[in-house]
Design goal:
Elements (H helix, E strand, L loop, with lengths): L7 H34 L3 H29 L2 H14 L12 H33 L1 H28 L6 H11 L1 H17 L20 H16 L3 H11 L7 H26 L1 H11 L2 H6 L4 H19 L1 H9 L5 H29 L1 H25 L4
Length: 398
């Protein structure tokens, strides 16, 4: 029996997913210890929350600018490659930071986010062209699965590095970890160039519209942006989560990356599951994922129980899976092809600004009242649901 081969669109999605796998192996491996590393370098909880949020705000807010540039120039591949280069290079550079160099480490974090700002609108747009043939929920869900395989392997790799370097200081071990991440970073760039060579014009996957449709932020889009902004405000950054875990629980330092790896596995499963559900049920999938993930802060921060912590991390992983799959799929569904990079730029700009504001405020609240921080996190995420519903009703996607 003849085996059915992948369509060119699906082959492109899978190949780009492998690029993302190695990319996530690099920077998510770093993310699994970044909060603890910043704390070791002398940064406070408030500073970590501020810097994490600032990096996200810069990285996301500039996506509107680069999205506009991508739509006007149609130079999707050059912008994607440049963004990946900055994003990847900033991670092993953390190995060069001195023992009290938290300011330099924070600057590198901002550089990494700038790289993501350059690449994301262009990358998401060219992927949406292929996804239009295969189902946007399934396609972005599959991409997130491959992303999160890398996000799982990155922390596991660092765990092994830490395991074999237990005789060294914690600081020295962390610097070696960041240096090791240069290897998957180099593989990422090589695979990206191969993908560019094999698929030089991915915009051909989606037919051109009969007439030009300029970007207009209509009511459904604005309602959706308001919803994702509230969700972003309440979603606590993992840097603060891992700092809390390292302070409140007696886990050995080398096991901390495994906690992140577990959350990334949940992220992968949730992304594909909710992506497939989104193609069949529309906004119901988005609402369900938010209901499941919103209370994660209660389980992580309110108790000193390891089983409840693991439940909270799993719920956090569900929220991350939704961010990287169905939130992006919704933009592909409601924004026309010709202005989709701008649409993604607006989406990610709003997400990042409110991520920054939320991360900063929640980080400050952590030092003053954990209970208030938890309540604000849960309420803001749940408040997004009525807006998702209203947006879907406007487009008959519910």
């Amino acid at each position: 029996m003849k085996r059915k081969s992948l369509s060119p669109a699906m082959a492109f999605i899978v190949l780009f997913g492998i690029v993302s796998l190695f990319s996530d192996l690099t920077h998510e491996g770093a993310a699994s210890i970044r909060g603890a590393y910043l704390s070791l370098l002398g940064a406070s909880a408030g500073t970590i929350g501020f810097v994490s949020g600032l990096g996200e705000m810069i990285g996301y807010s500039m996506r509107y600018v680069f999205g506009r540039i991508a739509d006007r120039t149609k130079q999707y591949w050059p912008m994607t490659i440049l963004g990946y280069a900055l994003d990847i290079a900033a991670v092993p550079a953390l190995a060069l930071i001195g023992e009290h160099g938290w300011i330099a480490a924070c600057l590198l974090l901002v550089v990494q986010r700038m790289g993501k700002a350059i690449k994301k609108p262009a990358k998401n747009t060219i992927l949406s062209f292929a996804a239009s043939q295969e189902g946007v929920g399934k396609s972005f869900g599959l991409l997130e699965v491959l992303d999160q395989i890398g996000a799982f392997l990155g922390p596991v790799l660092l765990y092994l590095v830490m395991l074999f370097r237990q005789d060294e200081s914690v600081f020295r071990t962390y610097t070696v970890c960041f240096a090791v991440l240069a290897i998957p970073g180099a593989i990422t760039m090589a695979l990206l160039l191969v993908t560019r060579l094999k698929f030089p014009s991915p915009e051909h996957f989606e037919p051109e519209a009969k007439e030009y449709v300029p970007f207009r932020p209509d009511k459904p889009f604005l309602l959706y942006i308001a919803g994702i902004s509230l969700f972003a405000f309440g979603f606590i950054d993992y840097s603060l989560v891992i700092m809390h875990i390292s302070d409140a629980f007696s886990f050995p330092a080398e096991t901390l990356p495994l906690l992140y790896a577990g959350a990334m596995l949940v992220d992968a499963v949730a992304a594909l599951g909710f992506g497939l559900l989104y193609d069949r049920k529309g906004a119901r999938a988005l609402i369900l994922s938010t209901l499941l993930s919103a209370p994660f802060a209660v389980f992580i921060f309110a108790f000193r129980s390891v089983p409840l912590l693991l439940v909270g991390l799993a719920m956090w992983g569900v929220g991350m899976g939704a961010q990287e799959s169905i939130l992006k799929a919704t933009v592909a569904r409601i924004v026309p092809k010709q202005s989709r990079a701008t649409g993604y730029g607006v989406f990610e700009c709003a997400f990042g600004v409110f991520w920054f504001l939320g991360s900063w405020l929640l980080g400050v609240l952590y030092d003053r009242s954990v209970a208030v921080m938890i309540a604000l996190s849960v309420i803001m995420q749940l408040a997004a649901i009525p807006l998702y519903y209203a947006s879907a009703k406007e487009t008959a996607a519910f």
